[in-house]
Structure formats: C-alpha cells, structure tokens
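Holo prediction. Input below; ligand is heme C.
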Amino acid sequence: MTTKTNRSLGLVAAAAILTALSTPAAFADSAGATFSTGDKFSQKTGDALYANLCQACHMEKGEGAVGAGKYPALAKNANLESAGYPIYVILHGQKGMPPVGQMLDDEQVAAVVNYVRTHFGNDYKDAATAQDVKDAR
Ligand code: HEC
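Structure of the complex:
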C-alpha cells in the first residue's frame, strides 16, 4: 500500500480500485477473467474487452448489479444513444467507476463502446472511431 497520494491515477492504482470496488459476487461471476500482466489490456475486440474489463461490474448481460455498490445496467440503456457519453465515462471515470480507459488504447475504447452500444438490447449503429476517443482524452 502506498502512503503517498498520486495525483494522476496510476494504472496499478486503477487495477487495485477495480478489485476493491467489485463485489465478491461480481468477481465470482467473472472468475475466468484474465487481467493482463502489463499495464494495458491486450484484448482487441469489443466482446473480449467487455468480458475482461466491464463484466466484473456491469455483469455478463449488461444487467448491472446492486451489492457493495450500485452498478448501472448497460442493457437497454438510453444513455448510450450518444457515443460520446460512454467514451467520456470510460476515459475519465464517473463516481464509482474508475477511468478504465487509461488502460486501453483508442481503438480498444472505440471497440468496447461499439460493442455495448450494439448489444444487450441497444441498437445504436453509428460507430465510434478511435479518433473520437483520441479527441475525448
Ligand atoms: C469497477 C467497476 C466498474 C468497471 C470495471 C466498469 N464500470 Fe462502468 N460503471 C461503474 C459504476 C459504479 C457506474 C455508475 C457511475 C455513476 O454513479 O455515475 C458505471 C457507469 C457506467 C456507464 C454510465 C451508465 C449510465 O447510465 O449513466 C457506462 C456507459 C459504463 N459504466 C460503461 C462501462 C464499460 C463499457 C466498461 C468497460 C470498459 C465499464 N463501464 C467498466 C462501474 C464499473
């Protein structure tokens, strides 16, 4: 445990937050998740990124969870209508959600945003691009 407070959230700290914030049930559900040993996630596709990074909190079908914290459902979520919103939340975090986009490159953020916007009952077909993500960092 570090005694100094880092101004910018380090990648290691982000990973620790992921663990600390997730309910035990969430982690039991995602026992197969493999966190990359390096600072960055290696998965490239939206479904693989979702399974390894988002599912621990937002659940397998995007249904969300209420336990130690409240994890909003991404399923049938009208807040996903504008791609800019999930991009922003992933890059910068929001309340209980850490800025997990710091562990992803622009293509990966776009891929996972496009995945959640076209799955779980969401049908937003205007794809986000890596450039959109770059502009929002
Ligand atoms: C450590 C747990 C955690 C992880 C991992 C996580 N989230 Fe979240 N997420 C949250 C919480 C908690 C909120 C609610 C934040 C708030 O109160 O505004 C949230 C909010 C969101 C929202 C906003 C929902 C809304 O209706 O306003 C989106 C979109 C989202 N997350 C997408 C993702 C995606 C995509 C990933 C994977 C790249 C991800 N999250 C990973 C915990 C997490």
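Residues 40 and 103 are 5 Å apart (CA to CA). That is the main takeaway for now.
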